């Protein structure tokens, strides 16, 4: 298992030890906002992650309990990734980052999602988290 060494007891530093690279949050974003769950779907993202980096980040996310991996019932050669409770707990952070990025780098999030977050942030986040929890239950 790839070991992540924490640099200090600071909670921000601890979070960055897991999520502070260029790609991990984008994979999580795709799982939360775009309902992506397969290697191929992640590869198709606009940012064009390299295959070796994607494989490494998915393995790390699984090893540290952010995602689970399961063989697809439709195709045995395809793996499905789902967020765990630990990963689902990151939804508010991902949404806040999306809002921040939308303000300082328009157009940002798609308009419908941004409108939902603007009018009912807590409810929108709860809805995303519930959908992900339901998917996790179906996968087990």
TrEMBL record:
InterPro entries, alphabetized: HTH_HxlR, WH-like_DNA-bd_sf, WH_DNA-bd_sf
Domain HTH hxlR-type, residue spans: 10-109
Keywords: DNA-binding, Transcription, Transcription regulation
Cited PROSITE patterns: HTH_HXLR
GO MF term set: DNA binding
Gene3D superfamilies linked: Winged helix-like DNA-binding domain superfamily/Winged helix DNA-binding domain
One Pfam family in the UniProt entry: HxlR
UniProt protein name: Helix-turn-helix domain-containing protein
